[in-house]
Amino acid sequence: HAFHGTGGRAAMPDLSWPVEYDRAALEEEQLTRRQTARCPEFSDVHPLHIIAEAHTSALARRPAAHVWALACRDGASSLAVQRALTILGRALRDAAPARRCRVQLDTAAVLGQLRGHVLEAMRHPHANHVVKQALDVLPSEHVAFIAEELIGNAVRTARLKFGCRTVLRLVQHSCALASARAVVSEVLDRVEALSRDEFGKFVIEEIMHQGLPEHQHRVLAALRARLVQNAQHEHASFLVQGALRLEASKEVRAMVGELLARRHVVRSLTLNKFGRYVLRDMLRSRVYAQAARVALLPLAGELQCCKEGKKLLSDLLIV
Q1: Residue 217: enclosing H or E segment and its boundaries?
Q2: Distance between CA atoms of 171 and 184, rounded to whole angstroms?
Q3: Among 268, 264, 271, 266, which residue's Cα sits nearest to residue 283?
Q4: 81 and 130 Cβ atoms separated by less than 8 Å
Q5: pLDDT at 171 exceeding the cut of 70
Q6: Which residues 6+ apart lie within 8 Å of 176 measured at CB?
Q7: 286, exposed or middle or buried, with CB in 10 Å at 0-12, 13-18, 19+?
Q8: Angle in degrees, 0-180, between the axes of helices 66-73 and 127-137, rounded to the nearest 10
């Protein structure tokens, strides 16, 4: 509680309409006008009305589901909910201490109508955007329920076209939330399979680049366990390419050395579509280019025999 002077009286929280909402809404409207050409759809519901209705329902302690209904109705109404969350996120950041209580109450009221629907949202073409927006714009303490509802279903969700977007965003909350770390742990228990999955690979990539050091180590260890096969796999090669950007990693340097050390392995990579992508990225890397050039030069004659080999050879000769 805040206290005024030396009188010892607790300051009453200001529960009036926060001016920060109007400022944030104006910024959102200006952004919308700039994006009109890309997103011409507009909802008949204003983001501030969504917040006000959630506040009224919470005060009356009556069940409400209009936020979830709007999240699902169509793309425009989903976008309105997303903008309401953005407004709340900015207000949480900018509100004066006396008005922060009102913003926190409204944030809880809006999110409260999404509780229990997270798994359903992971398969919904509109509602999934609302969940991922909450993870993007709100502090970790407000979105813990999202991770909690995914525990036990993290791997299944990571394989979904829409669900993978939410799981990978939880990686950025894993330092602050035990529930998010539990989701990441579930994913890492199946890292080999998810590395070879069309959508799961994006979650693994996020863990590799943004996760805790021990999480990154587990991803790299899994890639290295079947390195040659992974470098030639449709989806796992994407992660091997991503690992090359970790230029300071001793584990990645060892991976590169293993791929380039044996001529028959290098040749097998040149003959594989995805292996060539890995070699191309090595040639374009300031750290690994010289080692890749040394390994590929003896195969220059073979590379000239096919169209794709010639493309790789052009990268080789540029280095």
Answers
A1: helix 213-225
A2: 7
A3: 266
A4: yes
A5: yes
A6: 140, 141
A7: exposed
A8: 110
Are the CB atoms for 174 and 207 separated by under 8 Å? no
Residue with structure tokens 């293993």?
Answer: 258
Compute the average pLDDT of residues 92-117: 93
8 A C-beta contact, residue 200 and residue 219: no
Q: How far apart are CA 207 and CA 187, in angstroms?
A: 9
Based on its alpha-carbon atoms, the radius of gyration of the chain, rounded to whole angstroms, reads: 25
pLDDT of amino acid 28: 78
Instruction: Give the pLDDT confidence score for residue 250 in this predicted structure.
Output: 95
Q: Which residues contact 196 (CB under 8 A, 6 or more apart)?
A: 230, 233, 234, 235, 236
Rounded Cα gap, residues 47 and 69, in angstroms: 14
Tokens of 132: 């991922």
What letter represents residue 243's amino acid?
A
DSSP assignment, residue 174?
A: T
Residue of 246, 240, 247, 257 whose CA lies nearest to 294: 257
What's the pTM? 0.87
Q: How far is CA 126 from CA 59, 121, 131, 245, 260, in A?
A: 28, 8, 10, 33, 45
What is the model's pLDDT at position 32? 65
